[in-house]
Amino acid sequence: MKLRIRGSSLRLRLSQGEVRTLAERGEVEDAIAFPGGARLAYRVSADGKITDISVSYIDNLIHVRIPEALVAQWYGTDLVTLSGSQPTVSGELRVMVEKDFACLAPREGEDESDNFPHPKTGSGETC
């Protein structure tokens, strides 16, 4: 799972296996460890009790909750992006959870073997 934070937006990109795990087990999580023992974890989970995507940050965990029905729809279709927003003290936090596509041009050191096939493969375009 890839995490991108930019301004007031979060973007998480999930591989095919991660989308499948989310749909079948209800949760997928990853983390980054920092020198000195600090750790930032990020989790996406399916939640049958909510109707909108929500985000929380508690104890070094970014937790994105998505309605179960929306996860099932996303898993079973070509839908690429799930998005939502919620108010914050200083404005609005936007969140996007996306299927991670393989890049059109190979990149050294990147393992994209579990990424979704790019819809523009063979078009001559590059990332």
What are the defining features of this structure?
four-stranded mixed β-sheet, 127 residues, globular
Structure explained in plain terms:
- This protein has 127 residues and is mainly beta.
- The chain has a single domain (2-99), classed as 2-Layer Sandwich (Gyrase A, domain 2), CATH 3.30.1360.
- Helices cover 14% and strands 44% of the residues.
- The chain is built from 2 helices and 8 strands; from the N terminus they run ββαββββαββ.
- The protein has helices at 16-25, 68-75, and strands spanning 2-6, 9-14, 27-33, 39-47, 54-58, 61-67, 81-88, 91-99.
- The strands form 2 sheets. It has a 4-stranded mixed β-sheet. A 4-stranded mixed β-sheet has the order 3-4-6-5.
- The longest helix is centred in the first third of the chain and has 10 residues, at 16-25.
- It is globular.
- The protein starts with a strand and ends in a 28-residue tail after the last strand.
- The mean pLDDT is 88.
